[in-house]
Structures are given as C-alpha cells and as structure tokens.
C-alpha cells in the first residue's frame, strides 16, 4: 500500500475511490478518546429518560442504534451528553436542545454523505439536527452512524497495529 493525503491533509494508508468511497483506508491521526467508558452506562439511561419526552425519545432511539454497532462499543457522558465510543475512541454523540436533537460525529468530515444530512464546516466534526415532526432520511442517518463506527474502529485498529 502507498501513502497519500486526503483533502484534510491527513496521511492515508490505501486509497479513495473516484466516487469518494473508501477502500482499505486507515487514517493515521490522533483519535478523540475519553476516560472511563463502559458498556450500558446507567447514567446515560437516566439522561435519555429525561423531559421533554418528544425530544428525548428521538435521542434514545438514535443512541440505541449507536450502542448496537458492535460488541466493542462503550459509552460515557462527555460535555453533558451521551457519547458512543469504540473502546475509548469517540465516534458519535446525541444531545437534546430546546427545539431539536443533535447527533454529532467526531470524524464526520471524513464520512461519505451522499444525501447531504451532515452539517458543519469544522476540520473533523459534523452534526445533524433532528426536529420532532420534521421528515428526514432515517436510513441514511443509520448508514452514517454505522459508517462513523466503522471509520473509528478502523482507526483504533490501525493505531494498535502501528503502536
């Protein structure tokens, strides 16, 4: 395999296909890690049971999708909201605001998003705003969550192989 740079200037192993999809890629960069990640944190379950019910039901559903991504998913409260990790490397979070639910991706700038759900212009992170009674492509969001998990999982394994 050869080394190339992506648009963010991060070194890659493997290559990007012409359509933007990844083939055999592991980005070599520092992962955002959290201490004290656990499986099925009861503090997160309590947070997800909060009010207003309509917003927290949305957050509960999508955090459950994050939890189901793999046996290596751990979680922690970070900056006051549930964060899903591969081992201790964060891949996504949910947060509830006054009128919407935010779902954020720690490597969102590197995710393939053909439906254009992701918002933001930061170097790495992207997010989605979900509002009750507002239609969105739930299948595409599920694909983004699983892609974020797989992306961070590949980075964790690459870091372990190079350590």
Summarize this structure briefly.
By secondary structure, the protein is α+β, with helices and mostly antiparallel strands. 29% of the residues lie in helices and 25% in strands.
How does the SSE layout of this entry go?
Layout: E1 3-5, E2 11-13, E3 15-16, E4 22-23, H1 42-48, H2 53-67, E5 73-78, E6 81-86, E7 89-96, E8 101-105, E9 126-130, H3 138-162
Antiparallel strand pairs: 1-2, 3-4, 5-6, 6-7, 7-8, 8-9
Description:
With 163 residues, this protein is α+β, with helices and mostly antiparallel strands. It has a single domain, classed as Aspartate Aminotransferase, domain 1 (Alpha-Beta Complex), CATH 3.90.1150. Helices cover 29% and strands 25% of the residues. It has helices at residues 42-48, 53-67, 138-162, and strands at 3-5, 11-13, 15-16, 22-23, 73-78, 81-86, 89-96, 101-105, 126-130. Strands 5-6-7-8-9 form a 5-stranded antiparallel beta sheet. The longest helix has 25 residues, at 138-162. The protein is globular and about 40 Å long. Residues 1-18 and 22-28 have low confidence and may be disordered.
For this entry, give a set of tags:
alpha+beta, five-stranded antiparallel β-sheet, Aspartate Aminotransferase, domain 1, 9 strands, globular, disordered N terminus, 163 residues, two-stranded antiparallel sheet
Strand order of the largest sheet: 5-6-7-8-9
Separation of termini?
18 Å
The CATH topology comes to Aspartate Aminotransferase, domain 1
Determine the mean pLDDT: 85
Q: What fraction of residues sit in β-strands?
A: 15-25%
CATH class: Alpha Beta
- Per CATH, which architecture? Alpha-Beta Complex
């Amino acid at each position: 395999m050869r080394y190339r740079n992506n648009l963010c200037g991060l070194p890659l192993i493997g290559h990007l296909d012409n359509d933007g999809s990844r083939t055999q890629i592991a980005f070599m960069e520092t992962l955002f890690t959290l201490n004290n990640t656990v499986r099925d944190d009861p503090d997160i379950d309590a947070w997800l049971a909060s009010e207003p019910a309509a917003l927290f039901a949305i957050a509960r559903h999508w955090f459950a999708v994050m939890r189901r991504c793999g046996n290596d998913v751990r979680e922690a409260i970070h900056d006051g909201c549930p964060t899903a990790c591969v081992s201790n490397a964060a891949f996504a979070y949910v947060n509830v605001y006054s009128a919407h639910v935010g779902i954020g991706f720690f490597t969102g700038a590197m995710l393939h998003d053909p439906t254009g759900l992701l918002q933001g212009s930061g170097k790495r992170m992207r997010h989605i705003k979900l509002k009750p009674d507002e239609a969105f492509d739930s299948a595409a969001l599920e694909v983004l969550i699983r892609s974020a998990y797989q992306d961070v999982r590949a980075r964790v394994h690459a870091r372990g192989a190079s350590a």
